[in-house]
Amino acid sequence: MSASRTALYGQPDHDLAPSAPDAVQLSPLVLGSTDIAAIPDESFDAVSLRAPAGAVERRFVLAQALRVLAPDGRLTAFAPKDRGGLRLKKELEALGCVVGESARRHNRICVVVRPADTKPLAEAITAGAPRRISENGLWTQPGVFSWDRLDAGTNALLQVLPEFAGAGADFGAGIGLLALNVLASSKVTKLTLVELDRRAVEVSKRNVTDPRAVFAWGDVRQTDLKDLDFIVSNPPFHEGGGEDKTLGQAFIASAAGALRKSGVLWMVANRHLPYEAILGESFSKVRLVAEGSGYKVFEARK
Questions:
Q1: pTM for the whole thing?
Q2: Most buried residue among 61, 223, 236, 272 by CB atoms closer than 10 A?
Q3: Among 62, 70, 82, residue whose Cα is nearest residue 6
């Protein structure tokens, strides 16, 4: 089997699901990857897939992976038992597959061959595709951060944001909710939306049509932005299924490096996260603007 005819979704784990070194990466969370929804039918002989935790997203990805397999192509899907692994077998059976299941290192591993009848795939693909939120008309997609509701942390930040001026950025921009609020100020000259999830970047382009907005599919921790007047952020604090406080700390360090002298960072965080120390080290002045309902909002001036 040619390596060019294999694909990988998510970070590899060769102990659970071997994949070729040059397998085509399909995860939207890996920079430079290919959009699985844009892959033609029957493109690959084998796909290894780290299944997402969210049910709608997971069924969408499983269905897409089966769609892009050639006849008799093999899908190997795995997930931790407490993050969707226990549901994998039934979900693949519902998609028309005969499933071989095994367990290893608290994961469930399912191996299937592309079903002859692919009609059951359509419903899962439709359910996980980009859609509009009925309440506000914004575009979203299952799997992006807080895809079906206004995140409470984002809302806490929205309640206290000032009117900004000059050039700024939204670090971890999601579907563009914060950006829409920031761009309501006519004094803002440019806003760069930096986001790691390609799906969020794509829907934010549909939500934020202001010509002052610039979209960057990238990792905030590796940004080359400089001399900004302001940054807004609701940084993530989960990676790989577990809490990781270093993510937010890295966002803060990147913000300090991207701001000009006297530039300002406005950010929100869960109350229990220990960001005060790095804020104090990275900025000349830090103010707790608001605290409540499990969240805290900071203004930090360089």
A1: 0.93
A2: 61
A3: 70
Listed residue (278, 268, 251, 254) closest to 146, CA to CA: 268
Q: How far apart are CA 239 and CA 255, in angstroms?
A: 20
- Report the C-alpha gap between 173 and 197 in whole angstroms: 9
Phi, psi of 211 (to 5 degrees): -65, -15
**Reading across the β-sheet that carries 69-80, which strands appear in turn?**
24-25, 6-9, 44-50, 69-80, 107-113, 100-104
Mean pLDDT by 10 residues, the chain (302 residues): 76 92 96 97 97 97 98 97 96 98 97 96 98 91 92 93 98 97 98 98 98 98 96 82 79 97 96 91 97 94 98
Q: What is the pLDDT of residue 2?
A: 43
**Phi, psi angle pair for 216, to nearest 5°:** -130, 115
Domain range annotation of the chain: 3-127, 131-301
With tokens 């979900």, the residue in question is 91
What pLDDT was estimated at residue 242? 65
Residue 246, pLDDT score: 86
Cβ neighbours of residue 214 closer than 8 Å, sequence gap 6 or more: 190, 191, 192, 193
What's the chain's length in residues? 302
Residue among 250, 254, 224 at smallest CA distance from 237: 250
Cβ proximity of 25 and 8 under 8 Å = yes
**What is the spatial distance between Cα 52 and Cα 60, in angstroms, rounded to a whole number?**
10
Q: What is the pLDDT of residues 246-281, one digit of tens each?
A: 888 999 999 999 999 999 999 999 888 889 999 999
Which CATH number describes the domain made up of 3-127?
Answer: 3.40.50.150
Would the CATH topology of 3-127 be identical to that of 131-301? yes
